[in-house]
Each structure stands twice: as structure tokens, then as C-alpha cells.
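Handoff note, outgoing to incoming analyst
You'll be picking up this chain. Sequence as last confirmed:
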Amino acid sequence: MKKVSYAAFGGPDVLDLIDAEEPHAGPGSIRVSVRAAGVNPVDWRLREGQVLGAHPVELPAGVGLDAAGVVDEVGEGVTDVAVGDRVFGEGADTYAEFAVLSAWAPMPDGLSFAEAAGYPSVVETALRIIDEVGVRPGQKLLVSGASGGVGSAVLQIARERGVTVIGTAGAANQDYLRELGALATTYGDGWVERVGGLGPVDAALDLAGSGVIPDLVALTGDPAKVVTIADLGAPEFGVRFSGVAGSVPDALAEAASLIARGRLHIPVEKSYALTEAAAAHADSRAGHTRGRRVIVI
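Most recent structure output, in case you need it:
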């Protein structure tokens, strides 16, 4: 089978499309014929050699956590899916023609494989960090870097929970944030004052890692009210770095419910072929994403 892999840490150019042995479903897992794989910042962070405790890397390594596809092997003990079912979920080395998933759910009706592949990790992350930051109904949450996949999910899930959200993003994505129900403003010079003009902030999430942690602490008044998924230096300011996943099956179930009720939609901004994985990583690292990027197989 074809699979994206890297034998050394480095830039996007270390990615190779190789011929690899097919993986097989072990106990409690399934194998899918991958139709699309989500492109997540963790993918290029690991490829660069960043040390993320929840994702140890042994070289040579495959790439990708999220996938949507058709079940073609069912491991021992798995009873909730059958060969031929359409599923989306999380596993390992999903930039490939076949991948093993450790968590999955039936694909919601009406979603394409490309759309479905964009949900697993981002919804799990969004649910986790909303809970970790402790924001409650009636409060105001600031989301720095709000237009990407995780931000898109946070805005919609927080809105569903009765939380008012302020989102920062580039000028081109202001209308997008408003469409998702956020109070929108741009980052850059004067952004702290612009946020302040939108009212007091009860909690904040940093999704972009753009050096704003001290400002978020100042806006909330308490480092315990700030959580980041992007700034590894945040603990120096007393701010929690969230990198260990919670229950992916629970997140997938909630995602499917929200999608079915029309309460969650994350658009696919751009799709790439397996041969374009390096370009996908470069674009993801550059930021300014509106929604999701996916590999289509």
C-alpha cells in the first residue's frame, strides 16, 4: 500500500510516499480503507521533532491520527461495526491507503469522507479544553486563533452551551467567525484593547501559539483561567498546556449528535492528494486556516 512516512525529523521535505506493508486490526481495533485523513498541527509538530508526551515517535514514522473510510477488517472483541460500514475516527498513520483505528463512530448522514475526516481530533480537543478552562453558561470565553478546525469547533460547542465567545483571527476570517456566532476581532497591534472593548473576559484559550499568553493572563486576571494547545512555553506563566486526549469515543459520539442536529459544521478549506502531504503540512503550519485541511485518497 502507499503510505506517507519520514525517516528523520525536519521540514515538510522529509515526507516520503513509500510502499509499505498493510497494517492489520488487532483486538479491540478496526482497519479501514482510508478515503480521507485529517491534517492536524500535531502532525507537523511531531514531524519537526517537537516532544509531545502523548505522542512518542519512533523513526521511521508514519503520519496522521484522523481518518474516515470503509471498514475492511474487524479485530477480536469488536461488535459494533462490520466490514463495509462507513466510519470516522482516530488511529495511527492515517496518511495511507489503509489504517488501523482505535476509536471510531458511524459517519453521520450527509457527510462526505473528506468532511468526516476533519472532525475526530478537533472535536475531542475542543471538548477537552472547554472543560479544562472551566467556562460556564453566561460567561465570556476568548479564543485566540479561532478560525481553524479546533477554533471552529470551540465556537460552536461553546455557543451550544450558552457561552459567549470572542474570537480573534485575520481580517479575511472576521465574517466566518461571526457566522459561527462569535464576537469577532482581528489580532495584531491593539488587539488587547479591541478585545477589552467587547467586555470582560472570564476565560481564554490559545489555539495559535503566537506569543499571546501574557496578554491572555492579563485579560482574564488569572493564569488558571487560560489553557493553550499551541504554546509549549505556557507553563512558565502558570498556564496549562493541554496535550493529552480525553475519551475519543465520547467525543465522536457528541460530534455525531451535534452534526445530526445541525449544531456543528466545520468546512473543508482545502484537500490534498497523498503526494501533496508536504504542501498540506506547509499550509497548516502557516496558519490562517478557515475550517479544515484534509488528505483525500
